[in-house]
Amino acid sequence: MKSEFTPVDWVLDSNIYEVNLRQYTQEGTLNAFKQHLPRLKEMGVEVLWFMPLTPISVKQRKGSLGSYYACSSYTDINPEFGTKMDFLGLVQYAHELGLKVIIDWVANHTGCDHEWTNTHPDFYKKNEAGEFYDQHGWDDVIDLDYSNQHMRLEMIESMRSWIEAYNIDGFRCDMAMLTPVDFWMQARKALQPTKNLFWLAELDPLDNPDYMSVFDAAYTWRWMNAATQTKKDGAQQIHHMKYVLSQYLNELPQTACPAWFTSNHDENSWNGTEFEKYGEMALPLAVFSATWKGIPLMYSGQELPNLKRLAFFDKDVIEWKERPELHDFYSSLYNLRKSNKAFKSLAANESCLFLGNNVDHHILSFIRRNEDAVVAIVLNFSPYHLPEVEVASHEKGNFVEYFTGSRRQFNTEHIYIEMPAWSYQVWIKQ
Fold first, then answer.
1. Does the pLDDT at position 349 exceed 70?
2. 292 with 354: CB under 8 angstroms?
């Protein structure tokens, strides 16, 4: 498997921040969210991913406001959020701050009263009774028919309209594996001359390897599930978690950027916040997500941290504080990714390596390396204080621990590190 595209140059050491616009502010508008951009810029956020901005179907609507993912038009802005000029102004301001903007694209299905149901009913799949339907049992959406070439071209032109009208920087493609991979290839090739974009797929690349010939980045569901089991079952699961990580390293194109996450809109609303799922393991996992090969993905409110499940179909505002408690934590992680070239390499087997340790049923240790830049990461995924963890270093020289400023000399064989319960250390070669 080989990617046909080279990722945009800004993605390697970047990060993604998912914006749940409806719940972000009391107003739930683009203009209200715009006021948060300086804070997010200060925190080190670089890519804003907006959940779908398109209007929501009324027919079969869930809850009082409906699902973002049941659109009634591919080219309009949901009036709940504001106007086209509001979004244009937000994108322009984000670009002035050095931020990128990508939007959610739902290609597999539309809402039940999408405008195409009247203008192009042939764009949809139909059951034996000749009715629109969704084959997955979702009752507020209906499936599009990708054997219809006219529909494909209309879809691509709808995508192009967002690039030309707003100068967006990419797409996050919802449930990308439900749409034929050859469509995504067709779309990317067609849109490439308009602008070189970032393409993020909502799918696990280990389960859908052929899609990585098109997409730059993809979700890591296997990893998330393995991490969840590690928190539930402890030491008996950590070796499986490491095995899953080795799969991401060895089975994907070197240009691939796995997206690591502990929360998103689905996880938060349906399965619980990261603290419900992981408890004290949440912060070591955040350090992992920012330092393993790939790109970290963060959800609205994780910097607070938000400890409540947000309603999906109704208004449920995030309760912001003047200074989110984890602002500096995430700022430190994102600054590390940006300032140290160990995180800029595409070569998986050279730039990201496991380090052996003598407590490997509790400790995950690994190294990031790119030319003369070296960073060693040690994570304690256990509730136990480990006073003397022996870690194979493979490096010699002076190192500084990133969060505490502690200094020590590494030799080429091993070092001994004290690791409190659920702790993390990041050692940078000087």
1. no
2. no
